[in-house]
TrEMBL record:
Gene3D superfamilies: Zn-dependent exopeptidases. This is N-formylglutamate amidohydrolase. The keyword Hydrolase applies. It comes from the Bacteria. The keyword Hydrolase applies. GO terms for molecular function: hydrolase activity. It holds the Pfam family FGase. Keywords: Hydrolase. SUPFAM superfamilies: Zn-dependent exopeptidases. It comes from Qipengyuania atrilutea. InterPro entries: N-FG_amidohydro, UCP029730.
Amino acid sequence: MIDGMPYRQVGEPRKGGIIACADHASNFVPDDIELGVPDEAMEQHIAIDLGVEGVVERLARFHDIPAHIAAISRLVVDLHRDEDDPAVMPMSSDGITIPGNIGGNLESRLERFHYPYHQALDSWIEAAQPSLILAVHSFTPALHSTGEQRPWEVGLLYNNDDRAAQHAIRLFREKGLTVGDNEPYSGKQLNATMDRHAESRGIPYLTIEIRQDEIATRAQQSRWADLIADVASLTQLSLKSP
């Protein structure tokens, strides 16, 4: 974290432009919090959206899409959950118990990490008045606990507002990709950040889920930043068309 903040921002938003956020981009755990999980688990999808930080960094630095990036692990507090969601401080994830969260001080975690992250994102959006918001995530190709296989290379999630998502689904498919429509899980059930910051304001958004083996290397992350920037730009133009 920088100066104790649970986020960092790369780039300066342009009024009416496109901005991005990444709620699960870090696996950082402060020294005063003991989660009690094996070190190897902190390098897996339960702790971080693998590859996402590299993608959104490139969106910000090379495609003029500024990014609001989480700097705290989702196991400390899940920034992509509402404050009253039981999973906002997860007790387990994909079959792995998080001992340090059992009986942990939830309100302290919310005050220290969750509230500042969303307050800063809220201020950013109010100042920029973006025409499109990107929420970038990644998903594991298979769940360890169930063996469920995820064949999609990318998925677009949405709750009530699917204006941007339907354009992006078509555009990604035109690039020859296997695209999930509200897969690998539904934005009807989990869309907390975009519900809070985009749907509540009527701002179109793309919640983009990339399969983690697609963005494991820097070259792959650069490729996906290019793909997302292209799709986002075309979506923005489509939404502006009468």
